[in-house]
Amino acid sequence: MAFSLLFVGRQSIKRFLPASLLMVITVRIVNVIAKKRRWWWWYTKIHPSVSGSFPFVYGPFFVSSFWLLKYSYGKVMKYFGLNLSAHLLFTYILEPILNKLGIASLVRMRKIELMYVFVALATLLYGFQFVSESVAVTKERSQ
Questions:
Q1: Half-sphere exposure of 80 (CA within 13 A, CB side)
Q2: How confident is the model over 101-138, as pLDDT tens digits?
Q3: Are 19 and 65 in contact (CB under 8 A)?
Q4: What is the pTM of this model?
Q5: For the chain, how many helices (H) and strands (E)?
Q6: Residues 6 or more apart from 5 whose CB is under 8 A from it?
Q7: pLDDT grade, residue 47 (50/70/90)?
Q8: Which of 115-131 are b and which e, b meaning 16 or more Cβ less than 10 Å from the residue's Cβ?
Q9: Percent of the chain with pLDDT over 70
């Protein structure tokens, strides 16, 4: 999946990489909080010191954040519609599969609450990109 970033172009990488990296950091922090509060649990570990969430955060979550921004930034309804679709797919289809396979499961969090977390993350991603582009435009105008 990360392989697909080779096809986006240098300008797009420069434009959307900071927001996507912010999402990786934020999701890692949310995973630490979730582990402490037992919102969800990753049963599978790659290594004793590496959580099972690692491949999801640095793989699909990072790449999907990047592609969603690339194809829908500037079109708020399209962005939130695509994001909502992706998160509904994860929450109501993929999460039960992960649970059955013994990889991960929700513990003290209901599916609707997970959706609230995803919507908050999506809003943060879009907001960060909006602010970063506003700052870039302001810098260009002042020069």
A1: 9
A2: 988 999 999 999 999 999 999 999 999 999 999 887 77
A3: yes
A4: 0.87
A5: 6, 2
A6: 13, 63, 66
A7: confident
A8: bebbeebbeebbebbee
A9: 95
